[in-house]
Design the sequence.
């Protein structure tokens, strides 16, 4: 197509149809290629620490779990299209695997229309998981893990469809919001042939480097969050999180419970500090259990004050959340969300709360049932979204044609 | 109130009314004060560069304008309540001035229910501005700048009320999302007695340190954005931005045009690189005008190729945006927004675009009128929000009882 007719075509409106193919780079573009290369070199020399940091993609487990919180996150869930069968889903997961491998090292995916935005890894991770409906819709019922269903209804729940459920999850995170946006867009583009986007839930944690040493991230209630988590990489962590026995396609994977938990900050803020600490059972400043000095001190649930009253009340969150059975443990990785504010100034904020475990029925569920029965914190926290996900194991290497979920389709 | 009755009160449900006042810190809290002080000291020692950086608040001009883009931003607009008169508005602005001064140095505002989240300045800025309705509603019509009204309707506009207009603006930014969230919440809390929140529009730019040297931020179309801006602090900048002649309360202030511009990325992505460059008139990689080498090279609008065709087409954005009259210049400070994605994968993204100038009618308007008549970029960019704001001058110092907008009320 000549340059003249191309311009007419462009201006005539057909450009928006996507039918236009650029015939050549053109003289105007060529003229600045030298300067462009120089800029590129300067860019690379100036890549900063935030941009350069990267999380390994290939390995026994997917990334995005044993990973220090990134600053930005997006939980993108999909519903399979009726015409997508298991063979199509396999093609989708193969495509996605290649995309994630590239984005994780800061490269643009194949055929990326905006490769300029692949500025670096910035600890990009994308974690692929499947929901209960995935197996039924694709005729893979024999592969479905025993008892893998959405959570039972809880009294505290006020679940909304638009924040809940789904057949496939891409949980995508990075330390830079533009790199995250580009990654989400790339992965969604390669997914919409196979599935509809059900929701995209954006969240955040502190900017990289902002968490002062020795103190974990705080949530928007001001509490230190994530205390009592197993240490990443420890045998404790591995025993809590990774599936060892189960369907072969899931060995090295894990189960994810996702909860969107709205915070009623207006009424929470009206409480004094002492009341907040009684509700939680921890010191607001450093996260120490009441009556103790430090965040990680063992909790003494029997300690009483001079009046014989328990230092940690019966209704306190940590008393109800605490597992007396050592198998009832989970790994949490919560992000914050903020959508807006009402005319009266009530912020629409909360947690995109996640728990990882090898068995939801024996780890998350007993804890949640206790919290549902009695936890004063329920007054200020309302679950409005919920989903369960089977997180696929990792991909050992790309050279052998492996891809995420390959064993699901064999 | 005894501890026993306090607990009963708390558990009984009245806690949520805000009526509860903590009588004392309590034994459980006191026990961990030593450890708390130690944690605090460790925190301060570990403050990182991102957290420590701060923007001066006191001065001739407000901050948030001559400021390198922060990573996160929120444009919070308010509508005055009918009962708010000029005296009440003055009290509001006094309160807000004190809040901003504290937040800018990383301190919690007075009576902050969550001072734990005031972790550091992180380049926090909040800029206070008033809209045309402010003067009419408060009986201050004599103070209203001549011709200060919402923009005329443009052909390209598809404005939505929920993204447009307002009586008072707080434009709040920081390099950390939790610090921003805390700052927004603090300022909104101290505002809702006087006004209703009309909207809160969140945006972002690259994480701090991520912009590679020599190249400006890119928007989500992949373009380098902000070329041709006057250099911050130069006499050129000062002449373009700061009001020198006008109402005395506005000397040292500026006018802000805000536009929420939606990007049609699906169809934009379907264009090839050459076509995108013809639409913009610049090299996509380094921002150089077509036919030139570098971003800041002078534009040659007459250059032609071997076919006699202009290198920069008649419809190109930079040809239409370019001012032939030297007075038609503005200072732009655009952030990106991303709200979500449609089921078919179309991202709801765009720009929270801002232009600062001392006179909207002679600077922004002539440019916008040209773009409205003919700019091929209009096919992929739709203004869906709009507002004009008179940005108050700065506060020289706090000791003399000065506050933002004081001269408005005298």
Sequence:
């Amino acid at each position: 197509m000549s340059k003249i007719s191309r311009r007419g075509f462009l201006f005539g409106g057909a450009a928006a149809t996507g039918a236009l193919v650029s015939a050549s780079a053109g003289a105007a573009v060529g003229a600045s290629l030298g300067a462009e290369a120089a800029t590129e070199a300067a860019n690379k020399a100036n890549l900063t620490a935030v941009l350069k940091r990267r999380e390994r993609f290939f390995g026994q487990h997917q990334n995005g779990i044993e990973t220090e919180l990134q600053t930005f996150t997006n939980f993108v869930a999909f519903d399979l299209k009726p015409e997508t069968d298991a063979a199509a889903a396999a093609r989708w997961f193969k495509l996605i695997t290649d995309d994630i491998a590239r984005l994780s090292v800061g490269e643009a995916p194949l055929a990326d229309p905006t490769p300029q935005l692949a500025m670096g890894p910035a600890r990009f991770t994308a974690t692929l998981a499947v929901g209960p409906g995935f197996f039924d819709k694709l005729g893979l019922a024999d592969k479905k893990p025993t008892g893998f269903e959405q959570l039972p209804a809880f009294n505290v729940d006020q679940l909304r469809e638009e924040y809940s459920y789904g057949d496939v999850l891409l949980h995508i995170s990075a330390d830079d919001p533009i790199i995250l946006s580009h990654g989400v867009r790339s992965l969604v583009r390669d997914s919409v042939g196979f599935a509809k986007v059900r929701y995209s839930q954006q969240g955040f944690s502190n900017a990289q480097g902002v968490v002062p040493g020795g103190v974990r991230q705080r949530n928007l209630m001001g509490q230190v969050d994530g205390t009592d988590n197993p240490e990443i990489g420890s045998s404790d962590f591995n025993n809590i999180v990774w599936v060892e026995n189960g369907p072969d396609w899931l060995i090295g994977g894990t189960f994810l419970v996702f909860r969107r938990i709205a915070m009623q900050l207006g009424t929470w803020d009206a409480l004094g500090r002492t009341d907040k600490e009684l509700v939680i059972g921890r010191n607001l400043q450093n996260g120490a259990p009441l009556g103790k000095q430090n965040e990680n001190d063992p909790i003494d649930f029997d300690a009483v004050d001079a009046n014989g009253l328990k230092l940690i009340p019966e209704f306190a969150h940590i008393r109800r959340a605490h597992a007396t059975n050592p198998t009832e443990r989970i790994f949490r990785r919560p992000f914050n969300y903020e959508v807006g504010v009402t005319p009266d100034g009530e912020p629409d904020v909360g947690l995109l709360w996640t728990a990882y475990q090898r068995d939801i029925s024996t780890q998350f569920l007993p804890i949640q049932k206790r919290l549902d029965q009695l936890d004063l914190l329920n007054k200020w926290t309302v679950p409005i979204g919920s989903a369960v996900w089977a997180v696929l194991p990792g991909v050992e290497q790309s050279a052998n044609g492996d891809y995420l979920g390959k064993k699901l389709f064999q």
Remarks:
- Chain A touches chain B through 128 residues (CB under 8 Å).
- The longest strand of chain A covers residues 347-357.
